[in-house]
Amino acid sequence: MLAIRFHGRGGQGAKTASRIVGTAAFLEGFVAQDSPIYGAERRGAPVAAFTRIAREPIRERGIIAHPTVVVVADTSLISDPAARVLDGVDEKTVLFMNSSLSAEQLATQISLSGRVTALDLTEVALQRFGKRGAISALLGAVAGRLVGLRQESIHEAISRELADLGLAPSVIEQNQVAARHCYDAVPVVALETGSRRVPGSTRLRIPNYEPPSRGTARISAAANSLLRETGGWRTFRPVLVPDKCNGCWLCFVYCPDGVISMTKDDRPVIDYDHCKGCQICVQECPTRALVAEREKEGEAAWTAK
Ligand code: SF4
Ligand code: SF4
Fold it and tell me: Taking 90 as the threshold, does the pLDDT of residue 102 lie above it?
């Protein structure tokens, strides 16, 4: 069985990427299973998704603890302990990074035991789509290539999955073209196809179901959101162009995280420790006084280790 684990941020398309790979595998006659995990999360929050592919019925369920391939949509997740990107990764795991750094740079600058490969999908998306947005088709194409699925299957799977999301045919076609580019461009590394199971993990386990009072996530400590520095979630940061700002306060009103404060002369100040990079302020600013700049901090944070 091949087990692919996707890590991304809410809005990047990790869940849809896992579905694209699952559908492509299904089209090739495999048994496939895919599922996401993200809880009651916000755009930008760490999310994970899982795809299993096999020739036999898949009896394993839930998270993938020992992945064959890990696909990382955002390298800033590596330094986020909540994301647990490197859990279960060993020297046989193939690690794909969406990064502007090469695989060699990544392998030497962070201590990784897996087989690293990389491609700058964000740059591909910017060049092909001309804007920021979900890169699910690109992630799916890369993952599919790494596990040996055919380009035609990925192409068809993108069509089905993005159509299910209600995207226009022209947008789907644009995604397919960009995905084909990534499929061809990603450096392929040898895949370890043997069992990834740890001894004793194959016996059937019956899960216990807790009542909602125990089984539902809840926050019981008050006023703790300041402790969670969501600035590491950003792929793009909003930056003010002061000359264009008319002081209308709309960015202040629209920011869903309340991280914009206003000065006495009506200029926004962004708390970058907690701005998650959703870009709502950029979208809503009537004078284009806020612009999105690609974030490099995440890479800097872990490459400095
Ligand atoms: S400042 Fe802008 S990008 Fe940051 S969280 Fe608020 S609306 Fe989103
Ligand atoms: S929405 Fe734009 S113009 Fe209005 S205060 Fe914010 S940055 Fe300035």
Answer: no
Gap from CA of 279 to ligand 2 centroid (Å): 13
Ligand 2: residue of 239, 240, 287, 288 to mutate (most ligand atoms within 8 A of CB) is: 287
How far is it, in rounded angstroms, from Cα 30 to Cα 268?
Answer: 53
Full set of structural domains in the chain with CATH: 2-185 (3.40.920.10), 225-303 (3.30.70.20)
Structure tokens at 187: 């450096």
DSSP letter for 198, please: P
Which residue in this structure is represented by tokens 């559908």? 23
Q: What is the mean pLDDT of residues 85-102?
A: 90
3-state secondary structure of 244: helix
Asked if residue 261 has its Cβ within 6 Å of ligand 2, the reply is no
Above 80 in pLDDT, residue 41? no
- Nearest residue by C-alpha to atom 1 in ligand 1: 275
- Report whether 33 contacts 80 (CB < 8 A): no
pLDDT in tens, 113-131: 678 999 999 999 988 887 7
Q: Is 276 left (phi over 0), alpha (psi -120 to 50) or beta?
A: alpha
Using left for φ > 0, alpha for ψ between -120 and 50, and beta otherwise, residue 111 falls in beta
Q: Which pLDDT tens digit goes with each residue over 148-192?
A: 999 999 999 999 999 999 999 999 999 999 999 999 999 998 887
